[in-house]
Design brief:
Chondroitinase Ac, Chain A, domain 3, 5 domains, TIM Barrel, 61 strands, alpha+beta, 21 helices, globular, 6-stranded parallel β-sheet, Rossmann fold, 21% helix, 6-stranded antiparallel β-sheet
Length: 1033
């Protein structure tokens, strides 16, 4: 049990300071050589940040042999440290991802390699190599499954036949071939391949190599300090389709050696004989039952081989299977990668999702939450915050977590924390949520909020009255050429998205019902609720499905006969198990059929609402989510915002009315400030009405006790604004680390050749890798642990930086990786590479260099070069200012004072740390004060007055009570917590819409690239205001 305390009474002390299981556990990227002392220190950092643990996640750069004794000793070390700190050590089941190949150990054996079918208009000679959709395939790894005569009319399949060896072909027909192919070596899989996830034997081999190894070493802590093992993006070979029905192009479909046999055993027909129906549409709107059966059977093979096999092992060994599947959000993405997402969740003890780029994939979360409800799981896990870049702020961290919490997420897995930033690691989907980011000591503000929230949202049972039949199986019917199916598929995707958003924003919570899971979760019985596992729904929605399963129809029919309400949106399905039938139409006649429209749906479901929320003008709220839970005789209600404000600086207050069915005494549980306080309410017509003021980053957690609300108390004397003082600038300031010049542009010379004109460093690296035939570092490369052979340095790369300075710079530092292997020459003189600390990450080491004179300084770095060499930006550190004009950089006199506004334009364009503004104000008489700072571009702000810490400003309305201040002069220090965006970010990427911040984001080309620096605004952008208050009675 992950949350053993959930059955105990929630005390105030427990709420204020929850233990580790309620806290986040980030992906901890093991991406370098590993040192126990460093591991120990980073776990201390996690604890300081308020984390409850960590996921040990091997990623690109791992230099310790995966699953070796050395590796397992380090895992054991971290588990023991976690136990000592009362934290949790979460496991991860793979070297990188997707899960299943065990770092290549499994797929060294060809029997366990991924298989797929290539349906092609080209015949391949089995004795030759040929280039196919999947890359270069060795002939011996290809097997001919069938040869087909194909006749199309207007792009529709009017005739086909599987041919024997010498079968004659009709005039006007084409010949297509079907081959079973085996995946070949791929550097990403350590020069092996991905695993056959349709083969239980392959997954048993994966378990034997991976899970059994962990169990052997750590069994005593399974289910204790080690709660779960994370599986990442399991999938089958991605399905494709013809763009145009008459196009001569290959189609790839997942397949395996015995799929024909297992299909035949169920349906008593040959799948291979009828493969063309998987490729083309039938004429006259006919539906292919073979296509439907293929997608269903394939999904079952995948789920039973992968999730069931691993989930059963985990249950037996008292550890939870968690993680997430590949491509969960849309009907198309699920169909292509996993068939159906929800089916796999049957074997996840802790279902999980991923939510990257700060996206809003409500379907992904709802599917996992629905399965968790129905199987009685304790919560849902989310891999969250990935690919949000360095400048994601605390507003983003809270909001992204809040809406997911409303949709059931209780375990947040931060993507990610790097063990090291060495080499390509620093472009591994930042930010690094760890010691490398300058606000890490403040992050407990976020973790404490979510841990307190989780103490409540893991208690009791969910209250959900509406069930929705998931439409994925109807989508399978249209997996054909895009020119023939696109319109229908787009309509289905739109309907899928709409019903989710209409219900969620209409404040009608619901669960999806997977038809494939329904028979095992529901008995045929006459009952006025529709039972699915642990849940009982009062109304069922069939959202424009075209086919239903016979087993679903039987249960719907029984439910209707027992008085249950069924709503068909649009036309009822014409098919049962993809076979034409009037049975659903007969049921629909006794049910309710309404248009597929928001107003019609919400009107019919109004009676099933537990809460309503209205804006001040009486308009129903359309931007909040909620979760309602029952615990014994009381309830818990959580309400959250969902979307970011278009303008984050305008903190508009919204007055809302929350109307809750029943008579309750509400109590506010303030998760940010750790306070429990009474909430005013009134009773109207058997409902409890709460008037509440909401700011854009707020969420609200209420305990609802079954009694009359307390009467409104007579308001005491309040403080109201009397006078507003704007803090004058410029002000003195202090930096948390030296100022910086990014050395990203250099002249270069290779193997003592002529100097070439200035170019960006990563482009120089690519140039010589291409010249020498080395793999590009941004490409998928095998892990260092797979190739530890010493490689000679047969080449020499020289980089020449020319630094322009208006001042003499004393005691400058050069920050670079591998200084011990780099010859440093400053103005013609060799500099000793003596390390003096580090910058941002311990792999970026600081070296003292001679003072820089006025004028120009030449720094040359001579770097021995081979395929394993990391050529990276370097950094000049010191006490100076920096001026950037387009692509030109110059050192200038540092400013003694800062004005409010973008610090990029005040001598700090590349500065990557924190800045404290030292402000002063004069008070005319003793009075209370409030500070407001509405516009800032940093993660958060902290404030102290006369040396005493007063609090933080991170969320709207961007105010902080300072308490009473005496007459006279006061010092107000405001620390703006920066980030690494302008020193390590995509400073040459000029595509403002770019959102996938992986390695390619630093290497854009064409109109997405700019030599001129594209820097982000930083700092406190407008003057803070002090409001002096007085008492009024």
């Amino acid at each position: 049990m992950l949350y053993p305390k959930k059955i105990e009474k929630l005390t105030e002390d427990f709420f204020k300071d929850p233990p580790s299981e309620y806290r986040g556990a980030p992906f901890w990227s093991w991406n370098s050589k590993l040192n126990p002392n460093e591991l120990n220190e980073q776990i201390d950092v996690f604890k300081l940040m308020g984390m409850g643990g960590f996921h040990i996640h091997p990623r690109t750069g791992l230099a310790v042999n995966y699953l070796s004794d050395e590796f397992m000793n380090l895992v054991n070390f971290c588990n023991e440290k976690a136990k000592k700190e009362k934290m949790l050590c979460w496991l991860y089941d793979e070297d990188r991802w997707p899960s299943g190949f065990a770092g290549g150990y499994v797929t060294k054996d060809n029997r366990y390699r991924q298989r797929f079918l290539v349906f092609t208009p080209f015949e391949y000679n089995d004795l030759e190599e040929a280039v196919t959709h999947s890359g270069r395939i060795e002939g011996k790894k290809r097997k001919l499954l069938g040869k087909y005569e194909i006749s199309l009319k207007n792009g529709y399949l009017v005739h086909y036949k599987r041919l024997k060896d010498n079968g004659k072909v009709r005039n006007g027909s084409d010949i297509w071939w079907a081959y079973l192919e085996i995946a070949t070596d791929d550097p990403w899989f350590n020069n092996q391949s991905y695993v056959n996830t349709l083969d239980k034997h392959a997954i048993l081999r994966f378990l034997d190599i991976t899970h059994e190894k962990y169990y052997k070493e750590l069994r005593k802590d399974f289910g204790k300090s080690i709660p779960a093992i994370f599986t990442d993006e399991p999938q089958f070979a991605k399905k494709s389709y013809l763009p145009f029905s008459d196009e001569k192009k290959e189609v790839v479909l997942p397949f395996t050696d015995d799929l024909e046999e297992s299909y035949y055993n169920i349906y008593n027909e040959s799948l291979i004989d009828r493969l063309p129906e998987l490729i083309w549409e039938l004429p006259n709107d006919q539906v292919s039952v073979v296509r439907y059966r293929y997608h269903d059977h394939l999904t079952e093979r995948f789920v039973s081989a992968f999730a069931d096999t691993i989930g059963n092992w985990c249950e037996k060994h008292e550890i939870m299977l968690t993680g997430h599947l590949m491509e969960e959000p849309t009907l198309e993405s699920q169909t292509a990668a996993v068939g159906e997402a929800m089916r796999s969740y049957r074997s996840f003890q802790l279902p999980g999702i991923d939510m990257l780029c700060d996206w809003r994939e409500f379907s992904t979360a709802k599917q996992a939450q629905s399965a968790a409800h129905q199987y009685g799981r304790e919560g849902v896990l989310s891999e969250i915050y990935g690919v949000t870049n360095w400048d994601f702020d605390f507003r983003g961290y809270k909001l992204a977590g809040d809406w997911q919490a409303a949709l059931g997420v209780t375990v947040r897995v931060h993507h990610l924390t790097w063990y090291s930033m060495e080499g390509e690691a620093k472009r591994d989907y930042p930010p690094s949520i760890g010691y490398q980011i300058p606000w890490y000591k403040e992050y407990s503000l976020i973790e404490n909020h979510f841990s307190r929230l989780n103490t409540v949202l893991t208690r009791g049972e969910p209250i959900v009255r509406v069930g929705v039949i998931h439409p994925i199986e109807s989508y399978w019917l249209h997996w054909g050429p895009k020119d023939k199916t696109a319109t229908k598929r787009e309509e289905m995707e739109t309907n899928f998205k709409n019903i989710i958003e209409w219900l969620l924003f209409g404040l009608i919570d619901f669960d999806f019902i997977s038809e494939s899971l329904l028979p095992s979760l529901s008995e045929l019985q006459e009952k006025d609720t529709f039972q699915v596992g642990k849940m009982n729904y009062e109304v069922i929605i069939v959202p424009g499905c075209e086919t239903l399963r016979k087993t679903t129809l039987e249960r719907l029919d029984m439910f209707q006969k027992s008085g249950g309400k069924i709503i068909f949106l649009s036309e009822p399905p014409k098919f049962v198990d993809a076979v034409e039938s009037d049975r659903v139409k007969e049921l629909a006649k006794k049910s309710l059929i309404i248009p597929f429209s928001k107003s019609a749906l919400l009107r019919e479901l109004n009676q099933y609402k537990d809460i309503e929320i209205f804006k001040e003008d009486g308009t129903p709220s359309d931007k909040l989510f909620y979760q309602l839970r029952s615990e014994e005789d009381k309830r818990w209600l959580f309400i959250s915002h969902v979307y970011k404000m278009k303008n984050p600086d305008i903190a508009q207050k919204e007055k809302i009315s929350i109307i809750i069915k029943g008579i309750w005494e509400p109590v506010i549980y303030d998760t940010v400030n750790a306070e429990i306080k009474q909430c005013e309410a009134e009773i109207k017509n058997g409902t409890t009405v709460i008037k509440h003021e909401f700011y854009p980053h707020d969420s609200l957690l209420l305990e609802l006790k079954p009694s009359q609300p307390r009467k409104k108390e007579q308001k005491k004397n309040t403080l109201s604004p009397m006078k507003e003082i704007q803090i004058e600038d410029p002000v003195f300031y202090s930096l948390s680390e030296p100022n910086v010049v990014v050395l990203d542009m250099a002249e270069y010379s290779f193997d003592n050749g002529e100097w070439q004109s200035k170019e960006e460093i990563l482009r120089i690296d690519n140039k010589f890798r291409e010249l020498l035939g080395y793999p590009f570092r941004k490409k998928k490369v095998a892990q260092p642990w797979t190739n530890k052979e010493e490689e000679p340095y047969n080449h020499l790369l020289k980089l020449k930086y020319t630094i322009e300075s208006e001042i003499e710079v004393n005691d400058p530092l050069l920050a670079l990786e591998n200084p011990e292997n780099t010859k440093i020459i400053v103005n013609g003189k060799k500099v000793e590479s003596k390390v003096s600390g580090w910058f941002v990450d311990k792999c970026i080491k600081k070296v003292h260099i001679p003072n820089l004179p006025k004028g120009f300084t030449e720094i040359i770095l001579e770097i021995p070069f081979n395929s394993k060499t990391n050529i990276e930006w370097n950094y000049l550190l010191g006490d100076f200012g920096v001026e950037v004009r387009g692509k030109h950089v110059k050192i200038v006199e540092p400013k003694k004072e800062l004005s409010f506004g973008d610090w990029v334009n005040q001598g700090l364009p590349f500065y990557a740390g924190n800045i404290t503004y030292h402000c002063t104000i004069e008070y005319e008489k003793e009075s209370a004060a409030e500070l407001e700072i509405p516009q800032f571009r940093t993660a958060l702000l902290s404030v102290s007055v006369d040396g005493y810490e007063k609090g933080k400003i991170a969320f709207a309305p961007y105010t902080l009570e300072l308490g009473k201040l005496s007459k006279g002069r006061h010092t107000i220090d405001i620390t703006a917590y920066g980030n690494r965006i302008n020193a390590f970010g995509t400073i040459h990427n000029c595509d403002e819409t770019y959102s996938w911040f992986g390695p390619d984001a630093w290497r854009t080309t064409g109109n997405q690239w700019s030599y001129e620096y594209r820097l982000k605004p930083m700092g406190i952008l407008i003057s803070p205001k002090i409001r002096i208050k007085t008492t009024e009675g």
